[in-house]
Write a structure and sequence with these properties.
Blueprint lengths: L4 E5 L4 H17 L2 E8 L2 H6 L3 H27 L5 E7 L4 H9 L3 E5 L5 H16 L4 E5 L10 E5 L6 H15 L2 E8 L5 H18 L5 E7 L3 H12 L3 E5 L3 H8 L2 H10 L3 E4 L1
Parallel strand pairs: 1-2, 1-4, 2-3, 4-5, 6-7, 6-9, 7-8, 9-10
Antiparallel strand pairs: 5-10
Length: 276
């Protein structure tokens, strides 16, 4: 991906504000420009206000207040020596997908929870659309996580064709922050254990040819359930970021909505970098 643009969506919530620190961190490591994105669904105002004059005044006030907030965020990001711009999207949330695809960004960095029901709907829709995009790289920040450092990054592999490309991308971040990079595979099938160990050894040999670093380590694990084993591994190793490759919508849902969400997001509070 040739783009040097990072999209940072915000609803001005604490969760989104925490995500901004990660957007800045990625901008510095990847030498990328940041575009702040705020979505306003004006139809919600029209549904509660019938007087056209009052409605226009409300819309103008909302736009002015929004722009003031975005200018402040832009100026804060620029203090880190990064190029930054902002954009306000108006209309139906479905335009988010087309908007992102037209920009073809390097990465999207976003929090998981909005301030109230409308923004949860907007950004929930945004997250679903961007993660399903086959070209997306999405860094999702759990609600309470605040950026400290990226001293350790875990890449969970399931032997995807894109593993080497994704690890090269992660290595750019790892080199900038001098992070320890752990590559882990979790097998849950005894019958395939030998075959998967061989695949893992092959992946290790291929990766170490491309990434020559003393800070990269490989670990093969076995467990009855991948989600439980991964959650336990993250809890013990305490990484600053988890990265993985997936095109399976149900796997994303398992991460952010079901059992893995409760274990990883609530307990270990690990930002997740998703390659699709």
């Amino acid at each position: 991906m040739s783009s040097r643009l990072i999209i940072y969506p915000t609803d001005f919530s604490d969760c989104a504000n925490n995500a901004m620190a990660y957007a800045i961190a990625m901008g510095k490591a990847l030498k990328a420009k940041i575009r702040i994105l705020h979505a306003v669904e004006l139809g919600s105002l029209a549904s509660v206000e019938e007087n056209p004059d009052v409605l226009l005044t409300s819309i103008k006030t909302l736009e002015e207040q929004t722009e003031m907030k975005l200018v402040k965020l832009k100026e804060e990001i620029e203090t880190f020596g990064l190029e930054c711009e902002y954009h306000i999207l108006k209309g139906r949330t479905l335009i988010l997908k087309d908007y992102i695809e037209s920009l073809d960004p390097l990465m999207i960095v976003m929090g998981t929870i909005g301030k109230h029901s409308l923004e949860n709907k907007i950004f929930g829709s945004f997250a679903a659309q961007t993660i399903r995009n086959p070209k997306s790289i999405v860094l999702v920040i759990p609600q309470k996580v605040k950026f400290n450092n990226l001293s350790k990054i875990v890449f969970a592999t399931d032997f995807h064709d894109k593993d080497k490309t994704c690890l090269s991308f992660i290595n750019k971040i790892s080199k900038y922050y001098r992070s320890e990079l752990q590559v882990v595979h979790i097998s849950e099938n005894v019958a395939d254990l030998k075959q998967e160990r061989e695949k893992f050894s092959q992946l290790e040999a291929e990766i170490t040819k491309v990434i020559s670093s003393h800070n990269i380590h490989f670990e093969f694990l076995y467990g009855d359930a991948v989600e439980d084993e991964l959650a336990a591994f993250l809890k013990s190793s305490k990484p600053d970021m988890l990265a993985l490759v997936t095109r399976k919508r149900n796997f994303i849902e398992r991460i952010f909505h079901k059992s893995l969400s409760k274990k990883i997001v609530n307990q270990t509070q690990v930002p997740v970098l998703v390659f699709t």
